Hints:
Structural class: alpha/beta
Distance between the termini: 40 Å
Order of helices and strands: EHEHEHEEHEHEHEHEHEHEEH
Number of strands: 12
Pfam family, one: Bmp
Number of helices: 10
Domain ABC transporter substrate-binding protein PnrA-like: 45-340
Membrane topology: Lipid-anchor
Strand content: 15-25%
Main location: membrane
Signal peptide: 1-24
Shape: globular
Low-confidence stretches: 1-27
CATH superfamily of the largest domain: Response regulator
CATH architecture of the largest domain: 3-Layer(aba) Sandwich
Helix content: 25-40%
Amino acid sequence: MRKAGLGLSLAVAASLALTSCGEAPDETTSSDSGETTSDFLPCIVSDAGGFDDKSFNQLSYEGVQQAADELGADFKAVESNSESDYAPNMESLVAEGCDVIVSVGFALSAATVESATANPDLPYVLIDDQADNDFDGTKDADNIKPLLYDTAQAAFLAGYAAADFSKTGTVGTYGGAEYPTVTIFMDGYYQGVQYYNEQKGADVQVVGWDGSTGSFTGGFSANQKATNTAQQILDQGADVILPVGGPIYQGALTAIADSGSDAVMIGTDADLYESDPNSQDVVFTSILKNMKLSTYEAVMSVADEDFDAEAYVGTLDNDGVGIASFHDYEGEVSDSLQGELDDITAGIIDGSIPVTSYLN
């Protein structure tokens, strides 16, 4: 089996004109055509993963970029390197006169609510959080549109497939920060493995998450902690591993390559096989969040003066979540697997196969 090398690029793609963290953005990114025909100004701020995370920040950025291209507008993007950057970055975009501000990730919820409360006439799009920081069941600001994704549904499919593919009878997962938007993947993955065991009379084990506690790196950096955590999962016999948390998947790539393991990896948010060619040799599938489309649609609704602050929830039923193909492993999965996944998908959609997450 071919293995990924260690030459992992962390550089921001040359096409991304991103500003430094904690400072007012001093660069405007133009549409691909280079022609600006609209004065509408969409803006976006990343979490600490950065816009080149091959994951949710990058997909959201691409959604804003697509909207700007279609409108013939410029857009502004500001990148955060740490939690202390969130509030200053939000306010720098307000000062720039943005017409809509997209904030990416659960961690930006408090800063987004604070900014939205201070600017009630400015629309905000908050990705991966309900903007309910006081946990009273309602949004904390009426001008925020949450974009949410019930990725437990898609992760359930990935967990079932992982259990079916595993040769060791052990699969694993680990997360970045222990946020609900991280553990929702791990919950679905765990439930999918348990469902496989029930249906097949099997006993595939999950390491790194037991349904309530598990392994976390404490952040979203592609650092030694991510590699060490992945190695600990592999050392417990896992031959399918699900890293959840943007760039931390690179720790799994390194651990698999260093150990000479035959393990495979499951990507999150984007189809990792497509977004990071360095990963192709070990990517089994990816759990997808259609963030680019939903971000694009939310920005366009503001431009069309049709902004609706009601929360959007991506599911299998509305194609907001899903799983990618098995790519190079298509010939190695069981002949019956795809049919079983199709049946499970139908069952999840009609409610006959329950999948629980913090969203339900």
